[in-house]
Amino acid sequence: MLRARARQGATTRLRPRTVVLAALVLLAVAVFGVVSGAGELGWQRVLGEIVAQLTGGTSPLSEREAAIVWELRAPRVVLAALVGAALAGAGAAFQGVFRNPLADPYLLGAAAGAGMAATVVLVFAPAVTGWLVGPLPLAAFAGALGGVGLSWVLGRSAGGSGTASLLLAGVAVTAFLTAIQTFVQQLNTDTIKQVYTWTLGGLNVSGWDDVGVALPYIVLAAIVLCACGRLLDVLALGDAEAASLGIRPGRVRLLLLAAASLATAAAVAVSGLIGFVGIVVPHIVRLLAGASYRVIVPLSLLGGATFLIAADYVARTVLPGELPLGVVTAFAGAPFFAIVLRTSRGRLT
């Protein structure tokens, strides 16, 4: 029995070599994303520019070419890593809270709230400039948090903080906010293309300012989610078991949902709506590394960053014109989702 418990404990610990391996894969994909692109700069020359910046040597690139690397490619890769980590970490948290491996970061109205707020900005304030942070990401951020907040208030008023009432509240809030978005959009049909482009997601206008907008919120949320990995494992046993161990399930659930929603809102604010990252990545981590959320959450953060950098590279290079990033993640995620759904029959709660 003691040996069995020891083996079980070993599977719930995050091994340093696993983290190092995942970080090295992320670093390799990030470097590849910076040195490769549609521009004919040559990966050897771009790699020489990176080495020159690190060592103080002479760069093989011209000033204009170096600007392409550091002002276009590098911030885009960093932003893709942040958004991917946020969506995958939030997905892992939602799956733990709702005890369902197919739960999504947009489950409680975050996507609908962000979409509605972004549509309002595109229709009524499309030319607003001079703000420290653009009105569109601010509106999307506030809308995502507002949608989750409405779902939480409605779920509590319907009979507590249980997962069933929260899910039903999220469905109702999503339908209501989507109706508002459609109504506002019809007030100015000239903005339909802009709204459509935003809802498909993308990083084609990203820069270091966008990184600065998302970074503090995603880092804060990631720290909270990683620190709550053990609590997610306890919640998986059920509320009664968690309460017997001295944990208040309602408060823990609120903290986790707040952190996951904050990460989702920050990601949506700078990238639009990008689907399937929060479902696919945590599930792959669960298959490869075990079912403990002390392992799933941090590896989902690293895996989500790697996945979205790779997906963004495909989006900007596979065709002469850039594909929406949400289309690429849907091509990868939808078949995977269907396979998971089929193999999980009878085991979903």
Share of residues in strands: under 5%
> What is the CATH domain class?
Mainly Alpha
Distinct helical segment count: 15
Helix/strand structural class: mainly alpha
CATH architecture: Orthogonal Bundle
Instruction: Indicate how many domains the architecture comprises.
Output: 1
Instruction: Identify the CATH homologous superfamily.
Output: ABC transporter involved in vitamin B12 uptake, BtuC
- CATH third-level topology: ABC transporter involved in vitamin B12 uptake, BtuC
Write a short abstract of this structure.
The chain is built from 15 helices and no strands. The chain has 349 residues and is mainly α. InterPro entries: ABC_BtuC-like, ABC_transptr_permease_BtuC.
What features would you describe in this structure?
Belongs to the binding-protein-dependent transport system permease family. FecCD subfamily. Its main location: membrane. This is ABC transporter permease. The chain has 349 residues and is mostly helical. It has a single domain, classed as ABC transporter involved in vitamin B12 uptake, BtuC, CATH 1.10.3470.10. Helix content is 76%, strand content 0%. It has 15 helices and no strands. It is globular, with a radius of gyration of 21 Å.
Q: What's the arrangement of secondary structure elements?
A:
Layout: H1 2-11, H2 16-35, H3 43-55, H4 63-98, H5 110-124, H6 135-157, H7 163-187, H8 192-200, H9 208-227, H10 229-235, H11 239-244, H12 249-271, H13 277-289, H14 293-317, H15 325-343
Helix pairs in contact: 2-3, 2-4, 2-14, 4-9, 4-12, 4-13, 4-14, 5-6, 5-7, 5-8, 6-7, 6-12, 9-12, 9-14, 10-14, 13-14, 14-15
